[in-house]
Amino acid sequence: MAIELKDFFAFTHYEYGEAYFGSYKGMRYRLARNPLENVHFTPVDKRDPSATLMATVWPEPNSYFHTPDEVKTTKHFPITEEGMADAVKWFNEQYESRINEWTK
Questions:
Q1: What span, in angstroms and rounded, lies between the C-alpha atoms of 5 and 41?
Q2: Is-above-0.85 flag for pTM?
């Protein structure tokens, strides 16, 4: 696997409303809670039940904020340890299935 779960912040980090950004051989990626808000001190039963982990990929060289939304590919996952592992797996699948996009 090219991108590994151990490379990401600990699962609880995303409760603080912070995103993780990375890149791998021409593909940039981002993992964040959606909506992006600090819920660390909010009781679990009071949090938005529709919130997700949002995984996004896009081609280099631009940053997330300087890349048009239509160029980004996004998928949502449950806010769980398993959802985070599935998001990392999805990043790798995106890299492999679209390798020509990232390496041109």
A1: 25
A2: yes
